[in-house]
Amino acid sequence: MPSAKFLKFTNSLPKCSSSMYIQLHTHHIPLNHHLHHMHAVDSPHCPIITNVNETIHHYLFDCLQYQR
Ligand SMILES: [Zn+2]
């Protein structure tokens, strides 16, 4: 079960932000690295930068597509 602190925090967020937070925290997020692990896409790589896996770290800190 999630802790009371976690539930209090996620309940204070809008549903879309809460959902994104949980996806990032659990690593179950529709980025190619995870989708490839689930056999849903052919490659774990970022569609913008070749030969770089589209991981959460890449998504948050490196990807040019999501720089804004
Ligand atoms: Zn990227």
Which helices and strands appear, and what pairs or packs with what?
Blueprint: H1 4-11, H2 15-26, H3 32-37, H4 56-62
Residues 46, 48-49, 54, 58, 63, 65 line the site of zinc ion (ZN).
Detailed description of the structure:
The protein is built from four helices and no strands. The protein starts with a helix and ends in a 6-residue tail after the last helix. It is mostly helical. The chain is elongated and about 40 Å long. It has two domains: 1-28, no CATH class; 31-68, no CATH class. Bound molecules: zinc ion. Zinc ion is lined by residues 46, 48-49, 54, 58, 63, 65.
What's the structural domain tally?
2
Distance between the termini: 35 Å
Determine the strand fraction and express it as a percent band: under 5%
Number of helices: 4
Bound molecules: zinc ion
Percent of residues in helices comes to: 40-55%
Report on the biggest sheet: none
Low-confidence stretches: none
Determine Rg (CA atoms, Å).
14 Å
For the residues shown, what is the average pLDDT? 93
- H and E string: HHHH
The total count of strands amounts to 0
| Content-based structural category | mainly alpha
The coarse silhouette is elongated
